[in-house]
Specification:
Layout: E1 2-3, H1 14-22, H2 34-47, E2 51-55, H3 58-69, E3 75-79, H4 83-86, H5 91-96, E4 99-103, H6 112-118, E5 129-135, H7 148-161, E6 165-168, H8 172-179, H9 183-187, E7 192-196, E8 207-211, H10 213-225, H11 234-245, H12 251-266, E9 272-273, E10 281-285, H13 293-302, E11 305-306, E12 308-309, E13 314-318, H14 325-343
Parallel strand pairs: 1-11, 3-4, 3-5, 5-6, 6-7
Antiparallel strand pairs: 2-8, 7-8, 9-10, 10-13, 12-13
Helix pairs in contact: 1-11, 2-11, 3-10, 12-14, 13-14
The chain binds pyridoxal-5'-phosphate.
The site of pyridoxal-5'-phosphate has 12 residues, from helix 3.
């Protein structure tokens, strides 16, 4: 099977498993796991923030961020296709009791004027705007990158109103590699950032939430409340630390693979690539084949390719660390075969 459903499907490398087996551990709820401490310190440095917190998942990191930044009844500004809005089970409403103010965006880029227009004036009728949320890379747009210049503009705007900015940087390493900009440069224009260790980096479990020391201490309590206080977590921190320390240049290969596959797909009759393919995702439009994305996903499976439906006629294909150049050639052949099968 060539698994192109997500970059979350990677298996830990042999080196990572060795790091897991040899990890020094302690009880992290007591702050005594050396591997977790090292990971948090390294991640904070990488993000250019004072402190970082190792969390179980991107969702937990995002939710801990919302809970730490906001109070019940406040309003959260984000784009209407944000992962937080679409794919986190309504957790912000369920846990934080905040109101979502969703704005339309161009590939995750909300016009600064629209953000300014959505910030609530001080009036007894209105909720207070508690947080501005941006996603980089933007998942629903097919992994598009928000530039550091754009982030800088939004941060300057937010600063004028004294509102914090959070970056959901589940795939910030992809953004970093694609834009040639260090993660720190993106994170500088945000109060806090969450990034996944379990996606492009290929680590088995976990995410990082980074910000200033006081914020991270309060977030640590929210993590505990959310059930994310882990004990000998060094066994999962060690492979993540390895992934961060060894550098993530290999991500450029994932981007190259996506671009090669996208090029091949766009030459196939009836199939179009809807996105620009800036990073590791391809949004394949099946409309002209007359078949739904669900039909495509099941036919692709028969050709040993796993993909996900991302809309009635949209199939998402994601490259990652466990996909080789040979897999890309095989995937190209498989998609071609599926096309012949489906068009009978
Ligand atoms: C995957 C993802 C998350 C959530 O991460 P999990 O580890 O799956 O909980 C959050 N935001 C974005 C943009 C993502 O792609």
């Amino acid at each position: 099977m060539i698994d192109l459903r997500s970059d979350t499907v990677t298996r830990p490398t042999a080196e990572m498993r060795e790091a897991m087996a040899n990890a020094e551990v302690g009880d992290d709820v007591y702050g005594e796991d050396p591997s977790v401490i090292e990971l948090e310190e390294h991640a904070a440095q990488l993000a250019g923030k004072e402190a970082a917190l190792f969390v179980t998942s991107g969702t937990q990191g995002n939710q801990a961020a919302v809970l730490t930044h906001m109070r019940q009844g406040e309003e959260l500004i984000m784009d209407d296709r944000a992962h937080l809005f679409l794919y986190e089970g309504g957790a912000t409403a369920a846990f934080a009791g905040v109101q979502s103010r969703t704005l339309s965006s161009e590939k995750g880029q909300i016009l600064p004027a629209d953000i300014a227009g959505a910030i609530r004036p001080n009036d007894v009728h209105f909720p207070d705007t508690g947080l501005i949320w941006l996603e980089n890379t933007h998942n629903k747009s097919g992994g598009s990158v928000l530039s550091a210049d754009y982030l800088k503009e939004v941060k300057a705007l937010a600063d004028r109103y004294g509102i914090p900015v959070h970056i959901d940087g589940a795939r910030i390493f992809n953004a970093s590699i694609a834009a040639g900009v260090p993660v720190e440069e993106f994170a500088r224009h945000a109060t806090t950032i969450q990034f996944c260790l379990s996606k492009g980096l290929g680590a088995p479990v976990g995410s990082i939430l980074a910000g200033d020391r006081a914020f991270i201490e309060r977030a640590r309590k929210w993590r505990k409340r959310l059930g994310g206080g882990l004990r000998q977590a060094g066994v999962i921190a060690a492979p993540a630390l390895l992934a961060l320390k060894n550098g993530f240049d290999f991500i450029s290969q994932d981007h190259e693979h996506a671009s090669i596959l996208a090029e091949a797909i766009s030459n196939m009759e009836g199939l179009t690539v809807m996105n620009e393919v800036e990073t590791n995702m391809i949004m394949m439009d099946t409309f002209e084949t007359g078949l739904s994305s669900e039909d495509w996903v099941s036919e692709l499976k028969k050709q040993n390719i796993l993909a996900v439906s991302f809309g009635p006629f949209t199939v998402r294909l994601t490259t990652h660390r466990d996909i080789s150049r040979t897999d890309i050639s095989r995937a190209t052949d498989g998609i071609m075969k599926a096309l012949h099968q489906l068009k009978g």
